[in-house]
Amino acid sequence: MRTEEARPVRLEDYRPPDWLVETVELDVSLDPTATRVRATLALKPNGNGAAPAPLVLDGDALTLAALTLDGAPLPSEQYVATPGRLTIAQPPQRPFRLTIETVVDPSANTQLSGLYRSGAIYCTQCEAEGFRRITYFPDRPDVMAVYTTRIEAEKDAAPVLLANGNLVDSGDVPGTSRHFAVWHDPFPKPSYLFALVGGTLACVEDRFRTMSGRDVTLRIYVERGKEARCAHAMDSLKRAMRWDETVFGREYDLDIFMIVAVSDFNMGAMENKGLNIFNDKYVLASPETATDVDFDRIEAIIAHEYFHNWTGNRITCRDWFQLCLKEGLTVFRDQEFSADERSRAVERIGDVRGLRAHQFVEDAGPLAHPVRPRLYHEINNFYTATVYEKGAEVVRMIKTLLGPESFRKGMDLYFARHDGQAATIEQFVQCFADVSGRDLGQFMLWYSQAGTPEIVATGNYDARGRTYRLDVAQTVPATPGQPSKEPMVIPLAIGLVGRDGRDLPLELADGRAIERGVLALTKPAESFVFRDVGEPPVPSLNRGFSAPIKLVANISADDLRFLAARDSDAFNRWQAVQTLATRLLLDNTAALRAGRQARKDAGLIDALGAVLADGALEPAFMALMLTLPGEADIAREIGRDVDPDAIFAARAALRSAVGEALAGPLFDHYRRLSESAPYSPDAASAGRRALRNACLDLLAATRRADAVALAARQYRSADNMTDRMAALSTLSFIDAPERSAALDDFYARYADDPLIVDKWFSLQAAIPEPATLDRVKALTAHSAFSFSNPNRVRALIHAFALSNQKEFNRADGAGYDFVVDTVLALDPKNPQVAARLLSSLKSWRVLEPARRALAEKALQRVAAASSLSPDTADIVQRALAK
Ligand code: BES
Ligand code: ZN
What we know:
With 882 residues, the protein is an alpha+beta fold. Helices cover 40% and strands 20% of the residues.
């Protein structure tokens, strides 16, 4: 473990490296338990270091086998090698070559960081600090070097040998059963982007001609027999490459781009230069094995990792505090790609739902941190919704404030100015200040202040003066380490909607201009007076979710229904229904807890009825309109003293009431959409399936026999995974014989396919019944389950904690105990996965007192455990901090 590292690490302590590495020559001889790594580093002092600097290289669990300097063995009194560090106290203060030999055991590497084995395949994962588990190195992103990698292995065991860059040599090792390949990557890169792969892999190949006419070979490597499931990933890759050329002017830069799919992977995927390594869950798809949501995710992740080639690889991060420089920006880019490829409104709603479900929750709890943190104990714990999703929102706000042309100019300047560098957030934002002439000083608070800003907006119409006044006040709540906050720059896109549904002209009485309908809030409180407003308007605020804020506005239920039906901003049509439903669910949750009756509300049902009757709506959007806020959404709105049982009951009752009241139109849509055309994963077809399945789900929420029978029939007759899973998911909430029959059938059908069995695990973990915890525990002993595979753990245990609010938060605390037991068992094997699982307990402080006490006790049990990993120790300490 990294006990020798000085932790915590602080942004203000950043110093440039004393030593630079110009080239790295790696010679890796693969062996299941004793892989020999010989690394030759061309080192040179980094000019600006004044005093003669020692050479300190990072390591993690390494053993040094040999060390030479400019070809001569280094006497042992001239260096100190420990598992975590190699120090040469007095190296020559001139360029020299250091050759380091280490031996590592990939089979024993259960952390899946560094060089490890996934099944019989050798692969690497180096971000953030995995390279130091392969060889001693200045393992920090501002040390960029040119890598040449020679890999050698048994021909039988590893016929395919891959590394970053272009293949420059390969052949047999004479007189042995081994062969080798040499790869050269001409682009200087940080060590976290290094990768190698060796094993038996099948490959699917295609070509792409870049905008300047260069031909690039595209290859996707997968387990043999899975080739037919790569078509969607390959198609997504080609579309992403074209999109980046068209929208950002970015062309691919090597002759070959490779993707390798492996079964054991801590994350979703990794953008190693020219050699992306993927969790196979995010590559493999066919209509029979993957749902529409899977197809959508694969497209987004393939694009995301590809887009890193410019935002992350060509321009990387100076240090890990700048993580959002690559991740937030690249998420923004993949979201824009999906919006252009699919439906912009539908994608935006999906992204905002995700942001609220994960980032808002993080921001409201003990793990809250700024988009650019100032301090970390374990960097792996900062690959968070805040860095990623809020980081993407911050980039989007720059675009909203500057407008699309200026934004593109700023991006062009960023690429031109910083290509080949390890950059900072300041440098990124400066590009936009330079092209627009705007002062973005106050805007930088988005990077440094944690917490979700809360905006209270009050509108008043003056018929006499024909004016409309909008008063807005902003506050940013306190977060750990940040008790008081400065006001932020908030780009608030707005419209004033007239009775005919059209936007009224936006003109400020003081003559100030409003560009693109965006008000830029900068003060704790301010007022905007609009002139020549001929009728009382309905305000449509934060259109398109232009800022990641919580908004409270004095809008009546009637006006919300009006916006739901008429707003020209599709996002706010959806938001209006959400707001109506949320208000009702909050009231009803409180009523149920107080032993009162839930309120029956015709208003929401009318609004949903109008949605179902609106023939102009695209089906995917209609499906989103029909999806009521989830239990976690309601808990987040309540924010304190949360009782998950009451929330569940209120929501279940409302879903049933909607299904009952709108049964006619829901059945009509279901039948209308029961097409027999062959399956196609395109967005429009997926939208029709989403709507049909949303109708089915609402109908079944009533438990009426005809709806349950319909779901059972759909389960049996489905010709694609989307419809089969949707039916099974609907059935899984109903304790009826149809459910167990369908679950048994599903396992029998797909027992051979781990990624599909994962869906079966997740569904069962989500059943909101008291028997679920025992079912989940029993499933951990199922032959298809394994604690060593992150996908299995996520599918069963993480899914239980995240998507089963009711049973995870059982009143007896057994849900917390189970998750904590799993964390403790997992921590010694795979700390990253353990720490992420433990994060599911981060909202414990908002629970009602009895559950809060039980959750705290469970967390304290983790805190008291001996020899926790740095990852898990960091999460538990912050989660419990007063
Ligand atoms: N660079 C990350 C992968 C990563 C994260 C490696 C943390 C090591 C530690 C990659 O670009 C990424 O962000 N992947 C995401 C998916 C993406 C679409 C947001 C992931 O793996 O979840
Ligand atoms: Zn990324």
